[in-house]
Amino acid sequence: MARPSLTETAPVTLEQLHARWADLNARYFSGALPPIEIVWSARLTSSAGMFVSHAGPRSREDGHEGRARRLIRLSTPLLQHLSGRELLSTLAHEMIHQWQFDVRKRRPDHGEDFLEKMEAMNRDGLRITIHHTLDEEVSAFMTYAWRCLECGQDYRRQRRTIRPKDHRCGACLGLLGEVLPGKLPRKRRRIHPQHLAAQYRPSPFVQLELPFTAA
């Protein structure tokens, strides 16, 4: 039976994705990529796909350091209702990261070699991008929110990772208040600038965009 074309828009099954992986490996990587497991992930909601190696780069995020296992994870919530074209471009994106790790022996990123490979593959209509375009879908999973009590800047997260007692607004260093469903933080509290430095604790908290990561 003929395999679906690289640009078809019909839904693609996991079995077909394995077949597409083999085709893309032969066509764009000269068959250099070693076999890899492709899995659906119901918990992956911050990105459409992710290349993971338990024995090296990006291994910590999967919680299994030390195991010689690599896989490509695809987000069930974000991709299950999209076209085969979207699935294929996501798969191709993660394959470039696999190529960086398995062939070039380096930490996957979106540097020069990634861009060169992406451009070469996009000439055939794969439409690979660095960042995904699923902002609305990702936002639907951001169930926690905080608001700066000084400037009103909002911060949304999928998990309760912001701690108002430790973190401050990335824009003005103001205090943060959690926004509960149907409620707003207490009225803004003015803090004199001379007291900000004393109250502020350094932390890695900044407002970030959600990238199409391989992490």
Helix content: 25-40%
CATH-scheme architecture of the largest domain = 2-Layer Sandwich
By CATH, the superfamily of the largest domain comes out as: Metalloproteases ("zincins"), catalytic domain
**Domains counted in the coordinates: how many?**
2
Sum up the overall morphology in one term: elongated
Strand content: 5-15%
The SSE order reads HEEEHHHHEEEH
- Biggest sheet, in brief? 3 strands, mixed
Distance between the termini: 35 Å
Mean of residue pLDDT values? 71
Count of DSSP-assigned helices: 6
CATH topology of the largest domain: Zincin-like
Radius of gyration: 21 Å
Name its key features:
215 residues; alpha+beta; Zincin-like; 2 domains; three-stranded mixed beta sheet; 6 helices; disordered N terminus
Could you explain the architecture of this structure?
The protein has 215 residues and is α+β, with helices and mostly antiparallel strands. The chain has two domains: 14-135, Zincin-like, CATH 3.30.2010.10; 142-199, no CATH class. The protein has six helices and six strands, in the order αβββααααβββα. The strands form two sheets. Strands 1-3-2 form a three-stranded mixed sheet. The chain has a three-stranded antiparallel sheet with strand order 5-4-6, with no helix packed on it. A hairpin with a 5-residue loop joins strand 4 (144-148) and strand 5 (154-157). Helix 1 (14-28) crosses helix 3 and helix 3 packs antiparallel against helix 4. The longest helix is centred in the middle third of the chain and has 19 residues, at 84-102. It is elongated and about 55 Å long. It starts with 13 loop residues before the first helix and ends in a 16-residue tail after the last helix. The relative contact order is 0.14. The model is unreliable at 1-10, 56-67 and 184-215 (pLDDT under 50).
